[in-house]
Specification:
Elements lengths: L1 E7 L8 E7 L3 H4 L2 E5 L4 E4 L2 H15 L13 E7 L5 E9 L2 E4 L5 E2 L2 H9 L16 E9 L8 E10 L2 E8 L5 E4 L1 H8 L2
Antiparallel strand pairs: 1-2, 2-3, 3-4, 5-6, 5-9, 6-7, 7-8, 9-10, 10-11, 11-12
């Protein structure tokens, strides 16, 4: 029985490294737990205490969308917001000589690096990214670009949803990726409210 599976992607890899832990795979040969690693391409016995440590560590990550390292290395940002009538408004920002500017402006924009850092430290309220808002109200979408790329390296979409407990905020990681529930004050901070 497979207990858990972890896939780790690196920028230079075409496939992720994989680690899987099994329970009762072959207890006579390996004991109660065995791990399979694509890096070593073989099975290894794992002590129960190590399985518990890994389970605890992964549970603490489960409540965080895992954003790519180096989000602070982006040099262009496209922000789309929507009016109450649903009309989109777009704002483009570029980093030039270590300063952010609104596209077409000569004035430096203060705080963009701090905002990007804040987006990179988002914590979610949810257990996983398997659910999605039922009736979302689009708030904003951030497209992050690096090194003159035409495709964004990351897309974050934020939505609110009214439910029986009040307004619930959501973030979608990737253009078609999973949705994660967010702490509502995070969206307020990002919007500057």
């Amino acid at each position: 029985e497979k207990l858990l599976e972890v896939k780790i992607w690196s920028d230079d890899q075409t496939a992720p490294e994989e680690l899987a832990i099994y329970h009762q795979f072959d207890p006579a040969q390996f004991g109660p737990f065995v791990a399979y690693s694509s890096r070593q391409n073989g099975y290894l016995p794992v002590p129960a205490a190590k399985v518990q440590q890994l389970s605890n560590a992964l549970a603490s990550l489960r409540n965080h969308p895992v954003l790519p390292q180096g989000i602070g290395l982006v040099d262009r940002v496209l922000l789309t917001t929507w009016s109450d009538a649903g009309e989109p408004r777009q704002y483009a920002f570029v980093r030039e000589n270590e300063e952010w500017r609104r596209n077409g402006s000569k004035d430096a924009l203060v705080g963009m690096d701090a905002l990007i850092w804040r987006l990179g430290t988002l914590q979610t309220d949810g257990e996983n990214g398997n659910s999605a808002p039922q009736n979302p109200v689009r708030l904003m979408r951030w497209d992050f670009f690096r090194h003159n790329s035409s495709a964004p390296v990351l897309v974050l979409s934020f939505s609110n949803e009214q439910d029986k407990d009040g307004i619930k905020s959501w973030v979608q990681v990737g253009a078609d990726g999973p949705w994660f529930p967010l702490q509502s004050q995070v969206v307020s901070e990002i919007l500057g409210h």
